[in-house]
Design a protein that fits this description.
About 30% of the residues lie in helices and about 20% in strands. By secondary structure, it is of the alpha/beta class. Helix 2 packs parallel to helix 5.
Length: about 240
Amino acid sequence: MRTAGTEGPAVLLLHGLGATGAVWDGLMLQPGYRWLAPDLPGHGASPHSAHYSFGGLAAAVAEVLPERGPLLVIGHSLGGVVGLALASGWFGLQVDGLLAVGVKVDWSESDLAKAADMAAKPPRVFPAREDAERAFLKIAGLTGLAEADPDGIVETEGGWRLALDPRAFAVGAPDMPGLLGAARCPVALAAGEHDPMSRPEQLRALSEASVELPGLGHNAHVEDPAVLLAFLGQFVL
């Protein structure tokens, strides 16, 4: 787990599908908070799971945290859904505020079938490390935005593969109304203006507490980490 900062409120940072906690490095440079950024199960340096569900991911995160709260949570995409599960209080954490960025809320049958197909494929082995790094960036949506996290790829027989467990793609579509209804803390939903996966109008249909991030895309937290700081000030511990 990546950590930074020694003073201020504790903030749990949860990355999206295919990424690692390294996507938060820019935000973790900001002072005034104690940052906690784990790799979700099946990603980066974390172990794989036999089965992936939003509740299972939330339970695994809660188990490795050094403190039970109070916590602020920022989650991106898959991490935003995991954050919502944690905000329910079902996993023993005290979450006092959640910002969910870029959560995909509109899932078609085609989307789910594509995810199931990706989950069924064995890990691809690349002959060169650079090829695996490019694949890592592509699947995490980080091409042109960041360098590949070394924890995101592993050496294996015949070359290199992603550390990502493909079965994580089978996590399915979230029950957003149910999760929002179960949250015991203020929740804000946000999406970049140019995010093709999470449209601001879709979020507004779910919650009045939704915000469009001008000029940003799906990985808004990487493109402009400081833009998220303003949201933390809305939540009072």
